[in-house]
């Protein structure tokens, strides 16, 4: 009886791991789409409203619902307004590491987002807009690729995790 209960727990746990990997992959797509919306809003704030970057970031943080992004943009805005000795790139990197590490974004996504901060914080309005446009192109490609792979990845995650659970159960019994 104990072996049966243990087997069920192992199989259920391994399948749950695969299911969570699938949920994480879907969350990544949702978060990439949120960042895309935020970048479009930032582009609009800079291009049409002529808002300075710190004010644009604060305005955007008040309009988005996803907590990791809201906190990130609000904190970057506050640090920029404090006129600290840190440059924009440093503030962007530190906040990316602080607020976005717990997100579902992968290392490549975080790297591209950090690189956005390399070019966003200096020069003129046109440079800001061109940098945002380039980032949006990369983001659109990543979202398209992720959407195309999600069904297959979820199937693989669930199948492999279930197979591993059954395999471990067979070894134990």
UniProtKB/TrEMBL annotation:
Protein name (Swiss-Prot/TrEMBL): Stage III sporulation protein AB
InterPro entries: Spore_III_AB
Domain of life assignment: Bacteria
Species: [Clostridium] fimetarium
């Amino acid at each position: 009886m104990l072996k049966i209960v243990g087997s069920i727990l192992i199989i259920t746990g391994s399948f749950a791991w695969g299911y969570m990997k699938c949920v994480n992959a879907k969350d990544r797509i949702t978060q990439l789409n949120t960042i895309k919306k935020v970048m479009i809003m930032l582009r609009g704030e800079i291009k049409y409203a002529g808002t300075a970057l710190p004010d644009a970031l604060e305005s955007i943080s008040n309009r988005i619902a996803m907590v990791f992004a809201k906190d990130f943009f609000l904190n970057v805005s506050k640090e920029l307004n404090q006129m600290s000795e840190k440059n924009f790139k440093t503030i962007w990197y530190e906040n990316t590491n602080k607020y976005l590490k717990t997100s579902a974004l992968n290392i490549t996504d975080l790297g591209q987002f950090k690189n956005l901060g390399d070019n966003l914080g200096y020069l003129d309005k046109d440079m800001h807009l061109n940098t945002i446009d380039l980032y949006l192109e990369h983001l659109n490609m990543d979202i398209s690729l992720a959407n195309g792979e999600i069904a297959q990845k979820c199937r693989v995650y669930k199948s492999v995790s279930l197979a591993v659970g059954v395999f471990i159960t067979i070894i134990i019994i």
